[in-house]
Specification:
By secondary structure, this protein is mainly α. The protein has eleven helices and three strands, in the order H-E-H-H-E-E-H-H-H-H-H-H-H-H. The protein is 67% helix and 4% strand. Helix 7 runs parallel beside helix 11 (221-247). It is elongated, with a radius of gyration of 22 Å.
Length: 251
């Protein structure tokens, strides 16, 4: 069996039994999953060790059983399991949800940036993770800049500002935001521009200066989780906005 199939079962077991041990989890998996076979225990072990590295699990069950294979769900892990944030700890599931949210429109570069961001986060490297997610956001802003330039729906000074602003810079982000506001768009789209695009801009601001130079920040685990959870809807909005901008293109 693959990890993507087993992870949801592991999460459900941990929700019901937050203090347990590896063998008990495997026994529960055997009862739940008909396709599970003896050699799949190695895949299960990989999943459990990944959750330990990610801080969802920690060694020990109680004061009498402080070491592996006994484990317990951490406070952080419990919050993830309770409110759905655990999805970020299922990279295959996250990408599947991401592609569904964007209706399959997410291009290969964005998907690869997101995959790399997830890999960084799940290995405990939050800075690397946010840099990769920021790169995906920068790619989306560059797409918007190109659509705005080609649409002919903004004034010449704004076009020149977009062309002059360096890619992956705070200046480019602000130029795109200003240019979008110039366009005649449906009210329901206008209402989403500020929350959705500003959310993406915040990710970029974590890793780039106004001039586009690198900024090495150390975001918290909860901050990175929040960025991941919001990103699919933000990305979907960008593609929807692109379509709306193309419809406003000058003849």
């Amino acid at each position: 069996m693959d990890k993507a199939t087993l992870r949801p079962h592991v999460f459900e077991i941990l929700r019901k039994t937050p203090q347990t041990h590896f063998h008990a989890i495997e026994n529960d998996i055997r009862r739940r999953v008909e396709e599970y076979e003896r050699h799949d225990v190695l895949v299960l072990q990989e999943i459990l060790w990944e959750l330990l590295i990610q801080g969802v699990l920690a060694p020990g069950k109680n004061s009498l059983n402080l070491n592996l294979p006994f484990v317990h769900v951490t406070e952080y892990g419990a919050s993830c399991l309770d409110d759905g944030r655990i999805l970020v700890h299922d990279p295959d599931g996250y990408i599947t949800r991401f592609l569904a949210t964007t209706s399959g429109r997410a291009d290969g570069s964005v998907v690869q940036f997101v995959r790399e961001a997830l890999a960084g986060f799940l290995s405990g490297n939050r800075t690397s993770s946010i840099v990769m997610l920021s790169a995906a956001a920068e790619w989306l802003f560059d797409r918007l800049a190109q659509v705005l330039i080609e649409s002919g729906s903004i004034g010449s000074p704004t076009v020149q500002e977009l062309k002059a602003s360096p890619s992956a810079s705070g200046r480019r982000v602000q130029a795109v935001l200003g240019a979008v506001q110039e366009c005649s768009l449906a009210p329901e789209i206008q209402a989403l521009i500020e929350p959705q695009l500003n959310g993406l801009a915040t990710v970029i601001q974590r890793t780039r200066s106004k001039e586009g130079l690198p900024r090495w920040t150390q975001p918290s685990q909860d901050q990175v989780l929040g960025y991941f959870l919001l990103f699919p809807e933000q990305c979907a909005f960008v593609y929807h906005l692109e379509e709306a901008l193309k419809k406003t293109a000058a003849p």
